[in-house]
TrEMBL record:
PANTHER family for this protein: CHROMATE REDUCTASE (PTHR30543), NAD(P)H-DEPENDENT FMN REDUCTASE LOT6 (PTHR30543:SF21)
Organism of origin: Bacillus canaveralius
Domain of life from the UniProt record: Bacteria
Record-level Gene Ontology MF annotations: FMN binding; oxidoreductase activity
The name this protein goes by in its record: NADPH-dependent oxidoreductase
Length: 198
């Protein structure tokens, strides 16, 4: 709720919501040892931070140590911390590697490990793989539909052959910069619009 509304006890208007800075999580979609997703996520964050239009943060699903849904004791701290983290975010950028023509099991489990906290938010996808991670990204779009996450159209696709050295060191071609900014333009616009629904 906006400061003025708190002071005089009125509900938040759409205009006030629009003035608050959005919180956008850049979600790392892989957890394996030696993964490259942190390099890709940090690159997106650097570009995003220069815009100054939102609070961008890296969200590493590995930090939450989520058990597979329905397994474990139910007392694992990550089970509480993960939806709490998502609840504080207005939108997402998913960093998506392609594993066997889909997203990673870790990302699917993280998506399954919350529900309402995803709803009525927007997301962009940055994917990578031998064909730019396109097949994984399309799978993710189907899942996001069920979670009421509005995925934007502009989709930077990074090639393991031309945007990485030895498939390990991230050296993105210049042409991706414009696409990342266009994707963020759409994420910010839709995240702001959808905030008024929540
Ligand atoms: C289990 C597994 C399956 C993979 N399957 C594919 C695939 O189907 N298509 C593809 O383009 N790359 C595939 N790759 C290559 C990954 O996209 C590449 O290793 C990428 O760096 C993985 O992201 P990460 O380093 O963040 O884990 C696969 C990698 C792994 C580990």
């Amino acid at each position: 709720m906006g400061f003025l509304s708190k002071l005089i006890g009125t509900s938040t208007t759409k205009e006030e919501i629009a003035m608050e800075k959005l919180n956008i999580g850049i979600i790392l979609g892989s957890t394996r040892q030696g993964r490259v997703s942190p390099q890709v996520g940090n690159w997106v964050k650097e570009i995003a931070d220069k815009r100054g239009d939102a609070n961008y943060e890296i969200v590493d699903i590995a930090d939450f140590k989520l058990p597979f849904v329905g397994e474990g004791t139910g007392e694992e701290p990550g089970l509480k911390a993960w939806p709490e983290k998502l609840a504080n975010l207005d939108g997402f950028v998913f960093i998506v590697p392609e594993y066997n023509h889909s997203i990673t099991g870790a990302l699917k489990n993280a998506l399954d490990s919350a529900r309402d906290e995803w709803h009525n938010k927007a997301a962009g996808i940055v994917s990578y793989g031998s064909t730019g991670g396109a097949r994984a990204a399309e799978h993710l779009r189907g899942i996001l539909g069920e979670l009421l996450v509005a995925d934007v159209r502009v989709h930077p696709t990074l090639s393991l052959f031309t945007d990485f050295e030895n498939f390990a060191e991230f050296k993105p071609a210049d042409l991706h910069l414009n696409n990342v900014n266009l994707m963020l333009d759409q994420v910010i616009a839709w995240s702001g619009a959808l905030k008024t629904l929540r």
